[in-house]
Prior knowledge:
By secondary structure, the chain is mainly alpha-helical. It has helices at 2-34, 41-62, 64-69, 71-91, 117-122, 130-199. The longest helix has 70 residues, at 130-199.
Amino acid sequence: MIGSVFFIFNRLVEIVFLIPIIGMLAYFVDGYLKANQLTPPYILVLFIVSVIAIFWAVDTLIRFSTTKRSAIFVAFIDLCFFGAFVAGVYQLRFIANADCASWHGGSVWISLGPFGSYGDRTDNPLALDVNKTCAMLKASFAIGIMEVVFFFWTALLALFLHHSHRDVVVKETTVRRRSHSSRRGHGSGSHHSRHRSSSRRPSHYVV
């Protein structure tokens, strides 16, 4: 019961924090699409992982009874998302020490496309506030790290659910077997007692 409550709570936290990641990175993806440019991996990887992860989190939350029965599989997928978020965060690692109050893009200025050098050349409004770009990337990076922790934790909780569910199934099976055995024993005992009582009836002889 406690494991189920913790699992559901952590799933809800994952979903709540995945929404801003998707929203902020979708802003960048849309900008690159409108500029007809390829979205760089440090945005695309985390965006795709977050979109798939939120569908997975919602599905396992809605079908929680199925989640408990296949907890090992859920734990495995959560560990896969753990690794995927690690990869996404690693791609964005350049923004970790950036000062968003006075950020100039640095070595990623060209790869920022419409949010960087390409925007400057064409007076694209997306490039007018580079500090906003920095802040959004840094926020996505920070929340991505949180999701790394969340999915590792829910993988462990899924393993705990597996052990709890297995113990419940074993106990129910044991109780059913004992109940079945007791009914059989009671039935056979009644049969033997009826047999003994019938064998003890006095015989009547006709003289």
